[in-house]
Amino acid sequence: MILCSNPHAQYLAHKAEIDEAVAAVLDSGWYVLGQQVKDFENEFAQYIGVQHGVGVGNGTDALQIALKACGVGAGDEVITVSHTAVATVAAHEPGGAPPVLVDIEPEFFTLDVRQLEAAITPKTKAIIPVHIYGHAADMSAILDIARRHDIKVIEDCAQATGAMYENKRVGAWGDMACFSFYPTKNLGAIGDGGMIVTNDKNLADKARSLREYGWNEQRNSCVPGVNSRLDEIQAAILRVKLRYLDQDNAARARLAAQYEHALRDTGLTLPAKRDNASHVYHLYVVRLDQRDELKDFLKTQDILSGIHYPVPVHLQSAYKGRIKIQGNLTETEKAAKEILSLPMYPELKDEELKKVVEGIHKFKGAL
Length: 367
Ligand SMILES: *Cc1c(COP(=O)(O)O)cnc(C)c1O
Fold this sequence. Notes:
The chain is of the alpha/beta class. The protein has helices spanning about 5-15, 15-30, 35-50, 60-70, 85-90, 115-120, 140-150, 200-210, 230-240, 245-265, 290-300, 330-340, 350-365, and strands at about 50-55, 75-80, 100, 125, 150-155, 165, 170, 175-180, 195-200, 285, 325, 340. The protein has an eight-stranded mixed sheet with strand order 1-9-8-5-4-2-3-11, with helices on both faces. Pyridoxal-5'-phosphate binds near residues 58, 88, 130 and 192.
C-alpha cells in the first residue's frame, strides 16, 4: 500500500536521534514549557527569520491566540478563504469574530487578491492568507491592501513551513504567523504542536501570556487566556526534525519534479508556482474532471490519494448559512470537485512514485 502521507516513515528516518532526544526529556524531569521549548522557539524563529517564537498546543490554537493578541474580538471581522483546513475558520469560534470568506485564484488555490478589497468593511480587523499546499499566497499585494486599510495580517503557514516568498520565508511577512506541527505537516511532531512567530515584541508578549491563562510574570491572570502549551517531548523531537527540514523539503521538490515530468502529457492540471516563490509541496495536488474515478482506480492499485478539501468550509454544516461570503466562491467550489492529492512525503521511494504514475497512465488509457 502506498500512503498519501507517512509520518511513521519520517520517524524511522531519524529514529536514533529522536529516541535519544525523547529519553533525555524523560530523564530531565521537566515536561511542559521548559528548556527544550525555549530552544526550539529560538531556533524556529531564527529559521523563519523573525525575532520571536511562541510555542503552543497546536496550529488552531496558534491562530486563535494570534487573533486575540491582535485585538480581534466580538463584532470584528476577519477575512480568509473557504478553501482551507476547517481549522483556519474554527480558530475564530472562541473569539466570536465570524470570518468573511473570499474566493481563491484557481491557478494557485490561494486568496484572490482581487476579491479582497471589496470584502473590507470598517469592522475588518485582520486578514488571514493561507499558504495552501506549501506555496505562498500573494503576500506583496495582500500586505499592500492591509497597510492601506490599517488591517493586521496573520499568516496561516500550517502547510508551508520553509517555503520562500521573494527573499524571505513565509511567516516573516505578516504581523504574526501561525504554524502547525501536526504529524503530517512538513515539520511534524509526534503528536500535536504549534507556533506563533512575530517581529513585534508586544504581540509576542501578549501571545506568551494568552497561552497560559493570560498570566503576567507573577502568575496573575491579567486578561482572559487559555491553556495551550507546547510540551518538552514534542519540542525536543521538533528540534531534531528542524535540522532536516530543508533536506526534506528538497526531497519533496525532487519528487514533485518527477511527477511533473511523468504526468505532463496526461491532461491533468499540475501544481503551479509563482515566479517569486518556492513550493515545499506539503501536498502535491492535481486537478481533473474525473477526480473521484481516478481516486477509486488508484485505490484498486493499492495507492491512497487524498482530497484537501472535499467540502469548502462555507458549505460544511457548522458554517452553512451562518458565515459571510464575499460575492460568490465559484473557484473554491469548482476546485473542491476537481482536486486530488497524490502521495507525497520525503521518504516516498522513486519506485513507489513510478507506481503512482503508472496507475494514472493506466487510468487515462482506459478512459
Ligand atoms: C493543519 C492546519 C491548521 C491547524 O493545525 P492543527 O495543528 O491541526 O490545529 C490550520 N490551518 C491549515 C491550513 C492547516 O493545514
